[in-house]
Structure formats: C-alpha cells, structure tokens
Please model this.
Amino acid sequence: MAAMKVRVRFAPSPTGFLHIGGARTALFNWLYARHTGGTFILRIEDTDAARNTQQAVEVILQGLRWLGLYWDEGPLTSDATGPYKGERGPYFQSQRREFYQRRVEALLARGLAYEHEGAVKFRMPREPITIHDLVVGEVVRKLTDREELDPDFVIQRSDGQPVFHLTNVVDDLEMGITHVIRGEDHLSNTAKHIALFRAFGVEPPKYAHIPLILNPDGTKMSKRDRGASLTTYMEEGFLPEALVNYLCLLGWSPKDNREKIPLAEVIERFDLSQILRHNARFDFEKLLWLQGEYCRELPDDRFYELSVHALAKAGIDTNRFDLRYVKAALDTCKGKIKVFSELPAYGGFYFRDDITYDPEAAKQHFTPENKPRLQKLRDAFARAEPFDAPTLEATLKATAAELGVKPAVLVHPVRLACTGRTAGPSLYHLMEVLGREKTLQRLDRALATF
Ligand code: GLU
Model:
C-alpha cells in the first residue's frame, strides 16, 4: 500500500505578534513536511474580523519568510507586481465562508447540530473520547462536571460568524491535513475536534501536541516576556539560521547531545516520535552561543551586508566611505560580535569622527601624567613606516620601554582616543584600518581635552 502523503499546516490567528512558540510550531510542521516529502500549508485563521488587520498578517508572513519556512500551497497571490509575486498562499479563513456554511447546514440537516437562540450548537457526544496523541500519548477526555450539564458547544454565533472549533476542523478536513502538530494549549480542544470530524463521517487526523515553551525560570512564557516575540530577534540582528537551529532543540533532540546541527541533517532525522514530552525552557545563553557560532562562519559578503544594514539602522551611513575601508573595518569586528545590534557600539567609531569618550575611562586614562606619554607616542606614530599593525605594535612597545612604563599604560589611552571605549577590535589593527591621518587626528583631538 502506498504511504499516505503527509499534509501539515501552521494555522496562526493574526494577533499582530508572532510568538516564539508559534514560530517553533511552524518549524516543526515544516520539518515534518520536509522529512516526509509532504506538503506544508499556511492557513491564516482570521475569522475574528475585529482583530484582523493586513498588518497583523504581514507580521506572520515576514516572520516565516525570514526563518525560511516557506509554505508549499495555496492560491496565487493577487499582488502580481510585489516582491513576492508568484508566491502561493496562504489560505485565509475569511475567504472560505461557504465551506463552513455548507458544513453547518449538513450537521443541521442530520440533526447533529441545532439552533439555539439564533446560534448553532453542536451536539457533543456524552461518552469519553480517547486522543491518541503522538507526543502526549493516550489521553481520555471525559466531560467535566460543568460540561455534563450542557456539553454542546456553539459552532456558529447568532451573527452568523463560524466559531474556531468549526473552522479549524472544516479546514483540516477540506485541506486533507494528515497530522495536526500544534501547541499543547490546544489539547483541551481536541476532543471537540475529534467529535466534529466523526460527525462529518471522517477519521480525524493524527495529533501531535508539542509542549509549551517556558521562561528560564520555569514560568509560562507570555506575550510580554523577554524574547517572546519573533520580531525582537529580527530587529536585534540575529541570524535566522541560528534561531532555527535553536528552535529545533526546543522540544526535539538528535539524541547525541549535539547542539549545532545543520538544518539538512535535522530534516533527515526529525520525527514526531522524538518530540520531547516535557516543557522546554528557553535558554538565552545557548541561543547566543549558537548565534556567535553561526556569525563567525558567515561568508564575508553576507557578513558585510548584515553589518551595513545594522549600522544603517543606527544612523551610520557606510556609503560615504570607500568600500575597501568599510570591508577592512568590518573584518576587525568579525568573530567579535555575536548579535548585529552590538555592531554600532563595537565598530561605529570607524565611521564617525566625533568620538565621545567613556567618562569613567577618560577620568582614569586621560591624566596629566599620561599626557606627555601620549604626545610622545603620537609623534612616534607620525614617523611609523609602514603604518601597519606590526609596525604600530613595535612602535608602541618601544615607546613604552623608553618611557619606562608597561605597554598597557599607553594602550588604554590610545584606544580611548581612537574609539571612545575601552574594548573593541584589536588596537593595532584598528589603527591600521583608520590610517595614519585619522589616527593622528584622533590622538590630537583627545590630547586637546585634558
Ligand atoms: N488558530 C489557532 C491558534 O493560533 C490554531 C490552532 C491549531 O493549530 O489547530 O492557536
């Protein structure tokens, strides 16, 4: 018998926000589709017209595109000229009203639903329903005491609006979804969904409810918590490949303790049976570590592109500089910063002359004692030939020896004069990149302040 072709979906409601847990749900669906050669569908559950805006949908689309989680199916986009022309889908529930209407009528006709104060209610079976969840295991749902009084639930409101349980099930049915992979918060809805599938005369799909993502302290991660929104990572200059790698590990494990895993290998190995049952704690340190690893390995061109973008966002226009200068400057930052949002502070000094000095460090290093020393070093740098890192290092060390001080006594004020800060790229290399003229200008400018 031919194996059933896998069809999975990510079905977010557009709230204006893509939660990191939602991103992980999308990823696990996508991984399962790629692993099985199946189809990954994006379905926007936007029946609550009051809350839906085009902008809220864009947040989801941009987030998934950024992560590289492209959906495989759907109507051709109507925007024939936009940057995503030719892209398929997503499906919008708001455009599928007739499917829900038809199904409500079918249930009414068969006495499986009934009208009640203008709304339509579904006749929920009274006997327990067993869920065979691929992650959670077997769960038997009995009616609660409260439900026992009235287990039936509304599927269409009195204003004609179909309700979540109905639209969710009708679409999973119409779209031939084989596996519902979603957050564990939906486990409590699943008995209702199974009952609806049976009322429509079809077997429900397989369910895999994935554990929630918790804060590092074990509390449930809500919308307001640090790191809960995907947009934060996009804006902070994280690499999507680092975040995807991290999200793979949030509830799944390759079983050999490895943490940095190529996506192609995750696709090859990913299976629903390996999803961990316990809730996953968000570990920022691990994410940062992965980010640093991926950042270090970036091809130069992509590193330059992302750097220029991060600097531009901070108001630093690198276009005003020679391309070779920009690249040389950025080369001294590669492997040193983890997240691109650190770059303006780390390497911004290359692109502005109005250096502001860290006040604490200035107090410590721009001292009357240091002034003649720095002056002497400035004059030695003026004669250094060639003006490159090894010569500058030798020059600084020779000057320190002549002055009878440790090199560090000179290193700190020079760095402060050139960059405004006490930490940054290798001092001799950054001076080489700045060049003789700028380096001397900055030393003179600093010398004039104390
Ligand atoms: N719209 C629901 C949500 O965002 C989808 C639930 C499901 O995946 O079935 O939570």
Observations:
- The pocket of glutamic acid is lined by residues 11-13, 45, 168, 180, 182, 186 (CB under 6 Å).
- The two ends are 85 Å apart (CA to CA).
- The longest strand covers residues 39-44.
